[in-house]
Amino acid sequence: MNDFDQAARHIVKADAVGHLRWLFPKLATRLRFARWLDSQSAPRPGEPDRRCDTIAEMLDTTGASGPRAVVVELFTSPDPNACARTLMYLGRFAEEMRHGPHERDVYNFSAGMIFLTTRSGVVEMISDLPDEYNTLVFKPKVLVLSEQVAVATLDAFEDNRLGWGVLAWVSLMQGGQSAEFIARWRAVVEKISDLGIRRTVIDIVCVFAQLTDSADIWKKGLEGIDMNESILMKAQRDKGRAEASLQTRREALLDALDARFSSLPAEVRARVESETDLQQLTTWLRQAVTALDLAVFRTVSGI
Question: Which of 26, 53, 76, 103, CA to CA, is 20 to 30 A from 221?
């Protein structure tokens, strides 16, 4: 997951109600956001190790209908297979995820797609046979940030027609890269009383500014503003520290192996360099300094 995808998923989940109303402006008021469903059994097509955590469960406050699920798919760059990929995922989701007291009831589901830059390819699928036998109609709601107008979005926020989460996307929108707009945006954001929300919005709008080559002008326009570490930046910092620790341990293990055993096989070196479990590397390091020879080390380590 790259920084842009991480930022997009973070802000969507942080302001769930605001984003669902933004993506689906005609959503019935009786439908209320309940929670984000974390799919554990339905990895995204082509990404076997990745779970989708942007599936919103909506409840009907009148009790007239059962729970609904809305899948929000995010695309950093144009993807000609976006629609097909989303449909494939929905099919798997509909088959494997259930609700109800016995987890047997099927969700009524829909989908929305947010493109951070521009769209490409087909964004709907209609397959029909002769006469009136339409076999497939799939039209997910599509939101393309490059087609949105930054000033209009800011106006809507100030009029309480949009949630605070939309403030994080404006650097991707038309007109969101000028010094004048940034100055107005800053004035609006500085009025947000919640410090955590303010810092998160500032952080993410700057991350997205990189996609429109406006990072420098945004940085200049926000000089002096309170930009203490947000949740996203902390996560990125912690991730960087974890990777640094892994790399240090890998290097220590390889140094020990090179010092004790000559002609270290390429497959052993490659296995060490690909390991992402710090505890495993620590165990291997202990085994490397106590093994009588390379054959013993490979036996006890399983490499």
Answer: 76
Q: Which two tokens stand for residue 259?
A: 């010092």
Q: Which residues of 125-158 are buried (b: 16+ CB within 10 A; e: fewer)?
A: eeeeeeeeeeeeebebbbbbbeebebbebbeebe
Q: What residue type is 63 in one-letter code?
A: G
d(CA 252, CA 281): 9
**Six-digit token string for 244:** 């640094």
* Contact (Cβ atoms closer than 8 angstroms) between residue 39 and residue 55: yes
DSSP strands (E only) in the chain: 31-37, 55-60, 68-75, 98-99, 105-106, 108-115, 125-128, 134-138, 141-144
pLDDT, tens only, 158-209: 999 999 999 999 999 999 999 999 999 999 999 999 988 999 999 999 999 9
Output b/e per residue, 192-204; b: 16+ Cβ within 10 A.
beeeebbbbbbbb
d(CA 79, CA 71): 17
Please report, as a single letter, which amino acid is at residue 257: L
**What are the residue ranges spanned by the domains of the chain?**
3-147, 150-228, 232-301
d(CA 171, CA 181): 10
pTM comes to 0.70
Distance between CA atoms of 38 and 183, rounded to whole angstroms? 38
